[in-house]
Amino acid sequence: MPLPSSARALKKPRLDDEVRFLRSWIEKPLHMGAVMPSGKLLARTMAHYVDVDSDAPVVELGPGTGAITSALVERGVDQKRLVLVEYNPGFCALLRDRYPQAKVVQGDAYRLRDTLWNVLSAPASAVVSGLPLVTKPMLTRLRLIRDAFAALAPGAPFVQFTYAVVPPIPKSLPGVSTEASERIWMNLPPARVWVYRKD
After folding, report:
1. To the nearest 10°, the Cα dihedral for 195, 53, 58, 60?
2. Does residue 24 fall inside a structural domain?
3. Residue 54: exposure state from Cβ atoms within 10 A (0-12, 13-18, ≥19)
4. Is there a domain that residue 52 lies in?
5. Is 169:141 a contact under the CB 8 Å cutoff?
6. What are the protein's UniProt keywords (predicted)?
7. Is 97 left (phi over 0), alpha (psi -120 to 50) or beta?
8. What is the count of structural domains for the chain?
9. Bridge partners for 106 per DSSP
């Protein structure tokens, strides 16, 4: 039985996003955190760690087509607080269209200090990352979290998801507290959210 036209209209953006993601992944697989956009439950879990009552910026790394961005907005984060750091120019154009009040920065999140040096007006209340950390050398991961902590307010979270069974950044970093969500089995593939805070 065919879907009613309203249901087809709701499914179309998600399907379009999946096609965009797959095309980008085929072109540059190591630049993409996933083959498909994050599932809604994973995106909501990540957004849960962000303080909606703060006025400080929220930095999202690798937003892609905006699955996690959408969850942040649905949770109550004002678009004006969002700083979306995206490498892919096509995704940047899409994000500017979907989130016109957000600040979209085309740049390399793995060079976060250089990318954000003149962008933030105040320390961020969260950095939310959809980057493919486990595909990167450990020194690159550690540099990223160091630069993220430099951009964050004291005690603010660095939120990262991974499909791997091990944490993307070691739990034993000195002066850093770590927590993890339950594995999100409803995501494809199953994922876990890790949260790092500088003590």
Report:
1. 60
2. no
3. middle
4. yes
5. yes
6. Methyltransferase, RNA-binding, S-adenosyl-L-methionine, Transferase
7. alpha
8. 1
9. 86
Pick the closest to residue 65 from 42, 90, 44 (CA basis): 90
One digit per residue, the tens of pLDDT, for the chain of length 199 reads 444 443 344 345 555 555 554 555 455 554 444 444 568 999 999 999 999 999 999 999 999 999 999 999 999 999 999 999 999 999 999 999 999 999 999 999 999 999 999 999 999 999 999 998 999 999 999 999 999 999 999 999 999 999 998 999 998 899 999 999 999 998 888 999 999 999 8
19 token code pair: 């096609």
Q: The CATH number of the domain where 72 resides is what? A: 3.40.50.150
Give the separation between CA 87 and CA 32, rounded to whole angstroms. 10
Q: Which of 82, 168, 102 is nearest to 130 (CA)?
A: 168
Kind of pairing, strands 103-106 and 82-86?
parallel
Look at residue 147 in the predicted model and tell me its pLDDT: 97
Residue 90 in domain: yes
Cα end-to-end distance, the chain, whole Å: 56
How far apart CA 160 and CA 170 sit, in angstroms, is 12
Report the half-sphere exposure of 159 (CA within 13 A, side-chain side).
26
Element (H, E) at 85: strand 82-86
Domain span holding position 179 = 35-198
Considering only CA atoms, which of 38, 16, 23 is closest in space to residue 128?
38
Report how far residue 50's alpha carbon sits from residue 83's, in angstroms, rounded to the nearest whole number: 14
Whether 54 maps to a domain, the answer reads yes
